[in-house]
Each structure stands twice: as structure tokens, then as C-alpha cells.
Target: NAD-binding protein of Kef-type K+ transporter
Amino acid sequence: MARGKLRRRLQRLEQENLTARHDAALGEVITIPEDFISPARRIAMRVVWALGALFAAVMIVYFDRHGYRDIEATPDQNNPLSFLDCLYYATVSLSTTGYGDITPVTESARLVNVLVITPLRVAFLIVLIGTTVETLTTQSRQALKIQRWRKSVRNHTIVVGYGTKGRTAVTAMVSDGVAPGSIVVVEQDDLALERAKSAGLVTVRGDGTKGDALRLASVQHAETIIVAANKDSDAVLVTLTARELAPNAKIIAAVRESENKHLLTQSGANTTVVTSETAGRLLGVAKRTPSVVEVMEDLLTPDAGYAIAERSVTAKEVGSSPRHMKDIVLGVVRNGELLRIDKPAADAVELGDKLLIVKTAADSED
Model:
């Protein structure tokens, strides 16, 4: 019955169908960061392109100069156009001026037209028409980028919600070596989206509880989905929707109240974090032993001091006890299950196990 309700809910969400939009219509929904190019450089590039087009037109006219004729020439004259004539003709043609029956006939007038009038026209075209062309070009380029990104993105991380929890999670991942371009943020708040864009993240403007927003983030190809919603009800709905769309993805969800933890597990979350209880424990411990809180904060900050890391067991370590290794081992992960080192099953590590260890920032640099 629950699956039937879920399917009906997803069918209702299909009515909005953001994924059916053309890529050009997704410019305000999906934002992919790009390198900054100064306006002066953009204008300089436009000038170079305009001069290149002008030179090409001049050469074309010059090679076919026998097919052109000066209107001031007498009928019995059949002299081909000079190079300056070709340059003049190409100039007035590319600038869409068209003199008609009023034409410069002397070389000095034509030289003035080339050296003075044409730069002014080019500047006019750049300032007036170039803005419209740039807008169309930007939209086309953004649509092409979105199209390429949606076809190529694989094994990325989706963060639903970019509040305090979401930003902290992204900071931890980036500090641990995850490329910002492989992180996609799904958020509705404009300020949060601007923060994500400034951090170099791919952003999708939308409601994470709806299937369309997650599809735009290519949830079906995601490796990890981090649910950092502000409300527990939203976290459950996001987890349920994400699990339905991405059966094989790893879902990590945060919940405020511990009584809602089982709802996330039932919805398909692989790992749940109870934020209120975790903060409450640290507050309680800080009363008697504040240094413990400092150590915990240090362990959770990967770019400074100590950090918790995971590494594979080497062939030489097979059969040995994690208590006697040079690293400080906190636990053993075997077949996806965490074993504390005080358990008998973790007394001897096996090939394929992973160790949770404490390392320093210097170890990370090495």
C-alpha cells in the first residue's frame, strides 16, 4: 500500500515535469560554474573577430575584383577595383551602411571612411547589437553546458539543503579532497544558492522533496545523496523520493529528533545522524571535560589537526590485531558493518577490511 501511495505521489509530481523542459529553459534552474573572463577581454575578443571577418571579406572581394565596378567609372573603362576599393566595399557591406548613390569617390575620402567611420560603426555594433548577441550566445552556451553535463555526470554527490548542515557537509567533503564540481546542491532559497554558486558548486533550484528537482540533479547516476533538510518531515520525504529514484545510491540523512530516526531508516537511508542529540551530548560533556569537545571538533575538521580517516587493510596486516598497529584504530569495517576493536570478531583483521583510523593533517599532506 505504501509503495502504491508513493507511485501516485510521484505521478502527481510528474505534472510539473521540469525534466521535460528544453535545456535552454533550464538556465535559471541549473547553474554550472565557469571561469571568469573580464569584460575588457570579451570586448577585445569581439574586436578581433570583427577585424578577422572584415579581412576575410576584403580578400574575397579582391580575388573577384574583376566582377566589381566603380559607379564613377565611365562605361568604356574596365579597370579592376584597387585593394583600397575592395577594403572600402567590404567595410560598408559588413557595417550594413549602404551609401546608395552617395559614395566617396576619392581615395582620401575612402581612407577616412576606413580609418575613422568604420571603427565607430564597429564600436556601435559591439555596444548596441553585441549586448543582444551576447545574451543569446550566453543562453546557448549555458544550454549546451547543461546538456553536456546531464549526459556526462556520474558518481557525483547530491546535497539536498544548503543550510548550516549542508554547508558544513560540503566543507568537510571539499577539505577531504572531493572536487566542488562533483557536488550538486538542490535548494530553493536564493541566498543559499548564491553561497553554493560562489563555492564553485553545481546548483539546482528546486524542492528536494519532488522527483523533478532530483532528476535534474541526475539522482539516478549519483553515488551519494546527503539529505540536510531543515525539517524532519522534509528529510523523510526527500529520502523516500531519492531511494525510489536511485535504488543503488548511498543516502546519508540528518534528523533533528531521535524518534524520527527509524522513519529515515525505513525510507531507505543508509546512515542517519541525529543532530540534536549529538549537539546535546557535546554540551553535556563540555560541562565537565571541555577538552573532550575540542578533541571531537578537531577530529571532525579534516583540514587541521587530527581527523578520522578510512583505509584498506594491507596484505602484511592480515591476521594482526588492530590494537597493535602503528595507527590509532577506532574500528574495523567488514562487509559494510562497523566492528569496534573490543569485539572478538575484530581481534584479527581480514583482507578486504577497512580501518577507521586517526590521522593528522601532516599525514594527509604526505
